[in-house]
Amino acid sequence: MLTAVEVEFLRNELAEAQNPLFFHDSDGDGLGAFLALYRIHRKGKSYALGSTSCLGKEFLRKVEEINPDKIFVLDIPLMKQEFVDKANRPIFWLDHHPVQEIKNARYFNPRIKDPLAYIPTTRMAYQVSEKPEDIWIAMAGCLADFYLPDFIDEFIKQYPQWLEKVEDLPTMLFKREIGKLPKLLFFLQKGPTSEVSKSIKILTRIKSPDEIFKQETPQGKFIYNRFIKINEKFEELLKEAKKKVTRSRLILFNYSENKWSFTNNLANELSGLYPDKKVIIARKKDELIKCSLRGKNVLYALQNALKGVDGSGGGHPDACGAVIKEKDWSQFVLNFKKEMK
Ligand SMILES: [Mn+2]
Fold first, then answer.
1. Interatomic CA distance for residues 111 and 97, integer angstroms
2. Which band of pLDDT confidence, cut at 50, 70 and 90, is reported for residue 26?
3. When you count CB atoms within 10 A of the terminal residue's CB, does the N or C end of the chain come out lower?
4. In the structure, what pLDDT confidence band is assigned to residue 317 with cuts at 50, 70 and 90?
5. What is the distance between the alpha carbons of residues 323 and 137, in angstroms, rounded to a whole number?
6. Is 213 domain-assigned?
7. φ/ψ of residue 161, rounded to 5
8. How many structural domains does the chain have?
9. Does residue 154 sit in the same domain as residue 276?
10. 255 and 155 in a common domain
11. Which domain CATH number covers 286?
């Protein structure tokens, strides 16, 4: 968590900003953090990093174009020093991935003090915002990063129809109503750019989840319809993936590049529903197989399975990702199965 001094500092920087630019990760936590901060003053612009997790010099064009007076970077794991040096504006970086070296940017990362800390960026952004009416956004962003926030009881008080009582995370995320909130933040960022921008713009003004899910306003209805359409695509793939569940300790699901990418969400949900199994969700793109892996110590198995294979990967002990050349895919799967013996 941020200290009281840090919260005060960021609040002031935001209040004084005339045209801040928010770079955020394109997952649920990244979007949740942006919404929490933006909704304090509703000033500035946002840009989501979709295909990379590093803010490098290719994003200087965006800085030129928007000409912000301050830059906030949210839930982005990496930043190039060259970006900081050439952006030539105050930069405030809130993140919770492994700690990086950076000069001339204000860097806020709970892992600096405690390498094992796990505090999603949305949780910190909500410390800065502390708007009670935005608790549902903060909840959505935290859950998106598989984190049960300390304000859960307050949320239940305000939204009993979304959650009756605290249960274990997989149950709440994959079997209860509240699980739709993080999915909303993930799924609205998929699809054509113009629709994504429109959705995010609307989300900066939506007053409550009921405005969306009870379709109380035209804006809420737009978001609702988009979410339902995208969620259908996801559910269809989830159903396919569940057919791959056998007595084996591995769930391996491949799907086509013609379908929208839900690799991350599929892997999370299957692993939540089948906690004793290892999960690999793989999607072919060009000559590469991109996959998400889940399960106890799956990173260890991944590292060994990559030996002698044209590919790379990494991440957390129980949740990681890899990219493997298509020609070596079957070898990789063989190696991985051997690791599970
Ligand atoms: Mn995050």
1. 8
2. very high
3. C
4. confident
5. 32
6. no
7. -70, -15
8. 2
9. no
10. no
11. 3.10.310.40
- Retrieve residue 97's tokens: 């991935």
Ligand 1 geometric centre to CA of 204 (Å): 19
Ligand 1 centre distance from Cα of residue 24 (Å): 10
CA of 30 to the centre of ligand 1 (A): 6
Q: How far is the centre of ligand 1, averaged over its atoms, from the C-alpha of 328 (Å)?
A: 31
Q: What is the pLDDT of residues 81-132, one digit of tens each?
A: 999 999 999 999 999 998 999 999 999 999 999 999 999 999 999 999 999 9
Q: How far is the CA of 94 from the centre of ligand 1 (A)?
A: 10
- Quote the pLDDT of residue 341: 80
Q: How is residue 192 written in tokens?
A: 């054509």
The residue from 134, 150, 177 where one domain ends is 177
Average pLDDT, the chain: 96
Based on the fold, state whether residues 48 and 171 are members of the same structural domain.
yes
Distance 331 CA to ligand 1 centre (A): 32
265 C-alpha vs ligand 1 centroid, how far in Å? 14
Q: Per the domain annotation, does 206 fall within a domain? A: no
48 & 152 share domain: yes
Across the range 38-48, mean pLDDT stands at 98
Ligand 1 centroid from CA 291, angstroms: 19
CA 145 – ligand 1 centroid, Å: 6
Average the pLDDT over 205-209 and give the result.
Answer: 97
Q: Are residues 169 and 68 in the same domain?
A: yes
The amino acid at residue 272 is: G
Domain hosting 330: range is 248-339
Distance (Å, rounded) from C-alpha 109 to C-alpha 98? 8
pLDDT for the residue 1: 94
| Span from the CA of 330 to the centroid of ligand 1 (angstroms) | 32
For residue 293, the one-letter residue type is L
Listed residues 154, 177, 200: the one ending a domain:
177
C-alpha to C-alpha distance for 29 and 143, rounded to whole angstroms: 8
For residue 318, report the distance from its CA to the centre of ligand 1, in Å.
Answer: 16
CATH number of the domain within which 44 lies = 3.90.1640.30
Q: Is residue 333 part of a domain?
A: yes
CA of 111 relative to ligand 1 center, distance in Å = 13
CA angle, residues 107, 109, 110, in degrees to nearest 5 = 150
* Residue 218: count of CB within 10 angstroms of its CB: 9
pLDDT more than 90, % of the chain: 94
pLDDT score recorded for residue 191: 95
For residue 315, is pLDDT > 90? no
Instruction: Assess if residue 14 is contained within a domain.
Output: yes
Same domain as 65, residue 150: yes
| Cα(75) to centroid(ligand 1), Å | 5
Reported as a single tens digit per residue, the pLDDT across 59-95 is 999 999 999 999 999 999 999 999 999 999 999 999 9
CA 244/CA 252 separation, integer angstroms: 7
CA of residue 338 to ligand 1 center, whole Å:
32
The Å distance, Cα 319 to ligand 1 centre, comes to: 13
Chain segment 262-275, per-residue pLDDT in tens:
999 999 999 999 99
